[in-house]
Amino acid sequence: MAPFARVALIGLGLIGSSIARAVREHMPGATLTGYDADAKVRARARELGLLDQAPSSAAEAVAEADLVILCVPVGGMDAAAAEIAAALPPAAIVSDVGSSKASVATALRQRLPGARIVPAHPVAGTENSGPDAGFASLFRGRWCILTPDEEAAPADVEAVAEFWRQLGAKVEIMDAKHHDLVLAVTSHLPHLIAYTIVGTASDLEEVTESEVIKYSAGGFRDFTRIAASNPTMWRDIFLANKEAVLDMLQRFHEDLTMLQRAIRWDDGDTLFELFTRTRAIRRGLVEQGQDVARPDFGRSEG
Amino acid sequence: MAPFARVALIGLGLIGSSIARAVREHMPGATLTGYDADAKVRARARELGLLDQAPSSAAEAVAEADLVILCVPVGGMDAAAAEIAAALPPAAIVSDVGSSKASVATALRQRLPGARIVPAHPVAGTENSGPDAGFASLFRGRWCILTPDEEAAPADVEAVAEFWRQLGAKVEIMDAKHHDLVLAVTSHLPHLIAYTIVGTASDLEEVTESEVIKYSAGGFRDFTRIAASNPTMWRDIFLANKEAVLDMLQRFHEDLTMLQRAIRWDDGDTLFELFTRTRAIRRGLVEQGQDVARPDFGRSEG
Could you tell me if B37 and B61 are in contact, meaning their C-beta atoms sit under 8 angstroms apart? Predict the structure, then answer.
């Protein structure tokens, strides 16, 4: 039995459109409405038949919902919440999919006083953006983290948890601040590093961009994938989770400086010790089903 | 027509064993001999039937070869060259597969005076190591960079180029110093960064290793793949290509510091501008066939 009968999605990009497709597949009885601030995206969602109704305002989209999910960049959560505030049914549960949670929780509580709020973050995605990039299996086997505050009713949290489980995700509940720290290291720092190195490589005088691309199989191309992610989404994340990201950056910088020094002074043992340790992390990650075991991501098979 | 009739491989790990398999597939008439300093690896190579002969010394392995390829970590090239020096047939061409070229070229010229040397670097690999990890198609569609010095005869360079083309690679010829700069950015720096971030993540007090693994789908897991590469090989590369790696690290550090400052001062425009630019690099790379276009490396399809 699906926990919600009428689901409204605000934002129809990669995540919103994937939720729409997954709801269609796993909750065939549910009614889907949705809205995107970009008229072109709304039109495309209609063409793709993602929704039962795609009205031209966020307020109309949520007017009869029992679950509203805000699927906009975290910097847009405040505005999206403001847009639905007057039309939101009092019994509706409001959730989101933001990659940083403390700042979003504050925005939602301020804009929607008294609302039934259960913030969520499905840890899943691809480097592609927009309604065409979504697919129903995106959340399958991935974790979805809920970060309810003390005002959230346990039954509401369980309903949102059940929603995500029915889309194929595994659910974990966590404090918003801890979430932001965990994701700073598992997601935000990796993206920042990837964006940086791709930028560094494209700015060299002695090495052409064409050479960088040709010889990228040596490791660089792995970074380009996540450095192709949605720029607006990621700008917002770094600004929203500033404190934790700057903390992780500082630690990363210290560790990198240690390795830089080891290289300069021919200290092979320090390098070897770290390189052996990091291998074990990969092994654990593959064993726990969080990545494919195929060498080179299976590229050579393709 | 295969350019060489008797190929000797010194080092039977991922790359050596992949060459053996590819030679079997593409040059069925060639005789393959090989040696590895590790007796267990030699025994495994015999079990796998990778070679026609797997003698117990490097000297025996090269005694009748017309092409010798050193497939050992770059820090082991000097010792490997010393081992074969006395037994090397004067007409044999000596090549290697080292990921840094200037230091290897110096070692080979010193140890093998008068030899016909054509250094090479196939820009291909996986995160796995050892004779079981190799496969025949590893070099297909990848670039192999030759870095002959002024002593190398054009006909020798062409013979080695043809060898790699017959294994499926595309061949480029480049100055050793330029190679080392290009690879510092497309391969060495990415590996160093990946090793660092995986180490940073595993050293946190407030976030457990189990959490890092669980939520790695947010980006982190992409880094763990290359941070699982052979520790000896990579220690050697950073020490051998010290100058170029330290130069690239300095540039990377400047760029990262700029982004760090942008985050601290809420300068979203600087972030957005870079994140948009890096997206274009990914597009070029996929268009030129240097990576799979499947979103998320096709993981969700699996």
Answer: no
Contacts of A191 in chain B (CB under 8 A): 219
Q: Could you tell me if residue A192 is inside a domain?
A: yes
A206-215, B9-18, B164-173, B235-244: lowest mean pLDDT where? Answer: A206-215
Kindly state whether residue A300 falls inside one of the protein's structural domains.
Answer: no
Binning pLDDT at 50, 70 and 90, where does residue B298 land? Answer: confident
* Boundary (domain end) residue, out of B149, B174, B199: B174
Residue B10, helix vs strand vs coil: strand
Q: Are residues B167 and B198 located together in one domain of the fold?
A: no
Distance CA A42, CA A33 (A): 11
Residue among A211, A228, A281 whose CB faces B202 most closely: A281
Q: How far, in Å, CA of B45 to CA of B10, rounded?
A: 12
Domains of chain A: total: 2
**Contact between residue A66 and residue A5 where contact means Cβ atoms under 8 Å apart:** yes
Q: Which residues contact B48 (CB under 8 A, 6 or more apart)?
A: B17, B131, B132
Please indicate, yes or no, if residue B35 is contained in any of the structural domains.
yes
State the smallest CA–CA distance between residue B31 and chain A in angstroms: 26
Q: How confident is the model at residue A219 (pLDDT cuts 50, 70, 90)?
A: very high
* pTM higher than the cut 0.90: yes
Give chain A's mean pLDDT: 96
Of B187, B197, B297, which has the smallest distance from its Cβ to A225's Cβ? B297
Domain co-membership, A170 together with A196: no
Q: How close is the nearest chain A Cα to the Cα of B32, in Å? A: 24
Residue B265: inside a domain: yes
Q: Determine whether B216 is exposed, middle or buried from the number of CB atoms within 10 Å of its CB (0-12, 13-18, 19+).
A: buried
Residue B269: count other Cβ atoms within 10 Å of its Cβ.
Answer: 10
Domain end point (choices B141, B174, B207): B174
Q: Residue A141 sits in a domain of what CATH number?
A: 3.40.50.720
Under a CB-based contact definition with an 8 Å cutoff, are residues A96 and A108 in contact?
Answer: yes
Mean pLDDT score across all residues of chain B: 96
Instruction: Provide the residue range defining the domain that includes B209.
Output: 178-289
pLDDT-based confidence at residue B302 (cuts at 50, 70, 90): very low
Whose tokens are 């080092």? That residue is B11
| Residues B186, A201: C-beta atoms closer than 8 Å | yes
Q: How far is A283 from chain B (nearest CA, A)?
A: 8
With tokens 């009614």, the residue in question is A31
Same domain flag for B154 and B182: no
Residues A119 and A257 reside in one and the same domain: no
Strands of B170-173's sheet, edge to edge?
B120-122, B143-146, B170-173
Q: pLDDT tens digits, residue range A62-108?
A: 999 999 999 999 999 999 999 999 999 999 999 999 999 999 999 99
CB pairs under 8 A between A and B: 368
Distance, in Å, from the CA atom of B191 to the CA atom of B188, rounded to the nearest integer, reads: 5
Residue B68 and residue B208 in one domain:
no
Read off the pLDDT of each residue in B35-40 and give the average, rounded to a whole number: 98
Contact B119, B106 (CB under 8 A): no
